[in-house]
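Q: Here's a chain of 563 amino acids. Please give me its 3D structure as tokens.
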Amino acid sequence: MSYSKIVMVKIFCINTQSSKTFPEGTSLLEMLPAFEQEFETPYPILAAKVNNVCQGLKYRAFNSRQVEFLDYTSYAGRSVYCNSLCFLFCKAAQDIFPGGKVTLRRPISKGYFCSVNKNDGTELTHNDLERIKVRMREIVDADLPFRRYEVQREEAIELFRSLGYDDKVKLLETSADVYVNYYTLGDTPDYYYEALCSSTGYLKVWDVSMYRGGLLLRVPNRHKPEELAPFVEQPKTFEVFHENLKWNRIMRLDNVGDVNLACKRGEASDLIMIAEALQEKKIVQIAEEIERRVNQPDPVRIVLITGPSSSGKSTFCKRLSIQLKACGIRPISFSTDDYFVNRLDTPRLPDGSFDFDNFDTVDHQYLQSDVMKLLAGETVDVPEYNFVTGLREFNGKKLRLEPGSILLIEGIHALNPRLTDKVAESYKYRIFINTITSISLDDHNCIPTSDNRLLRRIVRDFNKGAFTARESIMHWPNVRRSEVKWIYPYQECADVLFNSAYLVEFAVIRAHAERILMTVPKNCPEYSEVHRLKKFLSYFVPVSDKDVPATSLLRGFIGGSSL
């Protein structure tokens, strides 16, 4: 007589700081009730980090593991929910309009901008939208499972080719994976590079509305997942996105697969030069607009330049200065960073660490006093902040606004009205710099809006010896929270928005970022983000930076800048 012995695996739960044993092959979903009794969460558990890698709840443990359960309030949990919601929307739209084309373009206005092109060529109506929403609710009420399959890459390619998903075919054909994962919802297959919810029953909070010639798929509030995220109108941001999307279509580059194929054909150098030319053209247009306003009876005298972390503010400021000189205007500039309060006077976060992104980090009263003196024609001794000592120093830097000159002020708080509230509004010209990624992995996988900047920051900080990759990732959530509070509220107040991202950026930065990400150990919490970023970068055919000019905004991050 023979019988098999039940093999047990030990699971350490970070949420409870305790261990329990389960039969091997037990899923996270099956484990959850045993741990949920010991920790409280007001929101449903959507996924978990297993040995610091995000996994869906259907993940089965065949060896001892460390597990941290995640809800919507975590970054990874939100990603799981939103990706699942995108699949829900795509399936519902395809059920209502078989043979139609569903496209999700980018996160905007606290949601996802998307479109549904019906196969009969007619425009989507409000009644059509209501039918899609009804179908979405039906699928949620049915609590249908998201099923995950791991197959050879070629098998997945043939599946998506048979369905007419050329975007996914091109993406997978240009990837280096041997096996790939895809999901099904009912009888509908789709591809998502991150984990999904275990079933549609989790997707209770969402809405879809008409928005600027397309649709807006709205998602829950990150702090109150039981509510929708508040709608934020972003007409200027949308216009920049739409302008870049137009250029992508002119160049027939809709998704990452298209870019990869172009790079494989040897066109990477051309794509880099086109991207740089488009950015330079925009900088010239901005300089000429400033020149026009400088020569008006009530002239512009101050240019305020801001943007979130790693958007390229400093390099942009230098390139704008060159173009202003070409217009016959003499720019003088300083950074709000030079007016930082001494480090010991810096505001602190609740955990006691310094809050370097707080508005009160800048001695704004002192800065504005100097600005008013400059506008009055006085000479000003401008401080320089010593980031090593944490002290403001005076090293003999003097500024004076001569006739024919203009003041450029660059910094994350430059557009905060409190910084220059004593200066006449007619004197100001406001520029907001952002990285608006107009390209997607495929028609159903948007690229997270902040990934450009995070990768830039990791590479720059590592190369300069400022922070390790782990430290940069550790600080990033606080940076993002500060941006939402202190920077982005003033984005739509700008006279002009400048997009510092371009098509082949991820392909260029891949070689720089991958080696740095390898330095993060697998046994730290930040490895979860490292794993995601490495997976994301793997979709891009690597491109050498040899054709990136020394004046490029990208050079400010990867090195080799001449500015």
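Q: Can you summarize the key feature?
A: The chain is about 35% helix and 20% strand.
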